[in-house]
Amino acid sequence: MSNLIDLGHDLHHWVDVSRLNKDSVVIDAGANVGLFVEVLRTHVDCKIIAVECGKENVAHIKNKNFENVDVVGKAVVGNSNQSITLTEIVGEPKGDGTMRYHQWHNIYGNHSDHQTAQVNTYEVEGVTLKELIEEYGTIDYLKMDIEGAEYEVIESLTREDAQKIKQISLEWHDEKQKSRLEEALISLGYEVFWKPHTEIYATLGEV
Can you tell me the distance from the alpha carbon of 79 to that of 69, in angstroms, rounded to the nearest whole number? Predict the structure, then answer.
């Protein structure tokens, strides 16, 4: 029986927790400071691969000492060997120790309206979903919030690789590209559900 829930907590990613267990593999693409990891763990204890490109965020996740979590300091991209420059917008520390504006770290530099704080740029290694599948095997759930790179990442998937990703919840960042994203997911064999807060939930199985 399906148990599709909104994780909330300003995340608003959707997941069918009935399809996850202790042996499941979850990819958190765009892990930020690890909030998704913390919230998902209140529903199921499973293997989580937290992929995050911001150095400040990676350090913060590692400092939380999560068990059964691999922290990958890379950016999820569409093409192997892609050269990536990260724009990191840094503000004052918040009460929890994270840097204000940390959520605007991205590989496109497209948050100029927030660039009143210190801005750093540096090179980041990329990793594709195909490479993650090759390393970890079947992905039972993929959460993706990668600031606009979701289109090229989904379109880079082959149908064969997509069949190894059972559920996806992603945030879309471009109103004009929504139909393109939906078409790509459908062509890969997913059933697509539009959710509030700019979220899409896609599944290979029945919900």
Answer: 25
